[in-house]
Design a protein that fits this description.
mainly alpha, Arc Repressor Mutant, subunit A, 12 helices, 214 residues, Rna Polymerase Sigma Factor, Chain: A
Length: 214
């Protein structure tokens, strides 16, 4: 087994070493990605986010042989996360009814009233708008703005053509804006989200603006 800990070690190097029994490699991989994966579940399955996150990392180890070399580690990891989430929803409510109910009502959220109060008004409205999105629109939005993922990576996670990703993101932005228009008074908040949606979206997790193309 390789000794690949440190900045020079790629995520897949660490995954291979972890799979071979080197616990320190697994610890380093979790240090790099655990928070991002947990955050992925926070808006959708808050009360089981820890369990689902752990399942994602175990799934990454178990599915290593099925990995496509053209993919990135992030796409590989969040593809597993998406499948875990949908499986959880189906188990909870049985079949397609879970997805239909979630699309209509919005997901469970760990954003408590106290957290919302601590946010800027623009951020509060944006969180409520994101909660109203259909599952894959919400996922596409989070992966793009929070994780800085490109169109090809998002397409792999959602299992759609890359040409569809830009359309998904556009639909998500319009849906959020429509929701904000219903719940926010006209004025500064609406204008801020309309003119600088990307900055406010990234501000929810402190993500930098990578100036990436979709």
């Amino acid at each position: 087994m390789r000794a690949v800990l440190g900045k020079a070690a790629t995520d897949f190097d660490l995954l291979d070493d972890w799979r071979a029994g080197r616990k320190a490699a697994g610890d380093e991989l979790a240090r790099r990605h655990y928070d991002s994966v947990w955050r992925f579940f926070e808006l959708k399955a808050a009360y089981v986010a820890d369990d689902l996150t752990q399942q994602v990392f175990l799934g990454a180890v178990e599915g290593r042989d099925r990995f496509r070399s053209s993919s990135t580690f992030k796409a590989y990891l969040f593809g597993i996360a998406r499948r875990q989430l949908l499986a959880h929803l189906r188990k909870r409510e049985r079949g397609d009814a879970a997805l239909q109910r979630w699309q209509a009502q919005g997901p469970d959220t760990a954003v408590t009233p106290s957290k919302l109060v601590a946010m800027a008004q623009e951020q509060r409205m944006l969180v409520l708008g994101l909660e109203s999105l259909a599952p894959d629109l919400q996922i596409a939005t989070m992966l793009h703005y929070w994780e800085g993922m490109r169109g090809l990576e998002i397409a792999e996670v959602l299992e759609i053509p890359v040409s569809t990703v830009r359309n998904r993101l556009s639909r998500a932005r319009e849906a959020v804006r429509a929701r904000v228009e219903k719940i926010a008074p006209a004025g500064r908040v609406r204008e801020a989200l309309d003119t600088d949606f990307e900055t406010w979206a990234r501000s929810l997790v402190g993500a930098p603006d990578p100036a990436r193309e979709v």
